[in-house]
Design a protein that fits this description.
The chain is mainly α. It has five helices and four strands. Helix 4 packs antiparallel against helix 5. The longest helix is centred in the first third of the chain and has 23 residues.
């Protein structure tokens, strides 16, 4: 027999509500930007140039710290004349490991190999 939740159990506290509202506002903004750029707001935007240049713009990642914390550790790179923040490869690998999707297993290996090569150079 299912037990009915009390009204108090269903309500979020103020901090939780504010966090949910902030997340929804960020997602709405990302969807609006994607729409304005002619992208599908339900898929991560993918930009690319020549072979091997493609990269994804993602709005959420598994297994990482808060946005503010990750943003502080991000590198600044220039893209089409615009400064953009880019996560270090080790953080991308950590996220892919945490997501544990079969399609990410090869990516994690490639990222780790790339990190090892860069450290040797």
């Amino acid at each position: 027999m299912m037990q009915r939740m009390s009204r108090e159990d269903e309500d979020l506290n103020d901090a939780e509500r504010a966090e949910v509202e902030q997340e929804l506002a960020l997602r709405a903004r990302a969807a609006t930007i994607a729409r304005d750029l002619g992208l599908d707001p339900h898929e991560p935007p993918m930009l690319g140039g020549g072979l091997g240049d493609r990269f994804d713009v993602v709005t959420t990642m598994s297994g990482l710290s808060s946005f503010d914390s990750e943003y502080r550790s991000a590198r600044t790179e220039e893209l089409f004349g615009v400064a953009v923040k880019v996560l270090p490869l080790d953080r991308i690998a950590a996220s892919k490991r945490a997501a544990a999707r079969p399609k990410d297993a090869l990516a994690v290996k490639l990222i780790e190999d790339t990190i090892a090569i860069v450290k040797r150079v």
